[in-house]
Amino acid sequence: MAEKNDRISVTVKSFATLREVMDREIRLDLAAGATVGILLGELCRKYPGLEPLLFSAPGILRDYVNILRNGRNIEFLTGLSTRLDDGDMIALFPPAAGG
Which phi-psi region, left, alpha or beta, contains residue 64 (left: φ > 0; alpha: ψ -120 to 50)? Predict the structure, then answer.
C-alpha cells in the first residue's frame, strides 16, 4: 500500500531588491498543508535579512509587498493563510522604489 505523500515541493522566485538577500530561485520541500505564511517563515530562517524586507511586524506584510501563487496575488486568495500545493510557483516582489 502506497504511503500518502506528506511533503510538497514549491518553487520560489525573488525579484528586485529581494535578490540581494536571497537566491533568485529556490525549491523548498514543506509539509503537506503548508501555507504561504509557513513558507515565508522558512525563507526568513534560511535568509537572514529577508524578514525586515517582507514584514513590518510579525505576521504583517509590508505595504506593497506582492506575493503571487501561480500568478495570483495572495491578497485576492486567503493572504498568508493561502494553502500551497505540490508544484506551486511563488513569486516574491518587494515594494517598488521610485523617484
Answer: left
Length of the chain: 99
Which residues, in sequence order, are CB contacts of 26 under 8 Å at separation 6+? 11, 12, 43
All cell numbers assigned to 17: 531588491
List helix spans (H) across 1-99: 36-46, 51-54
Contacts of residue 14, Cβ cutoff 8 Å, sequence gap at least 6: 22, 23, 24, 25, 92
pTM above 0.70, yes or no: yes
Q: List pLDDT tens digits, range 44-86.
A: 999 999 999 999 999 999 999 999 999 999 999 999 999 999 9
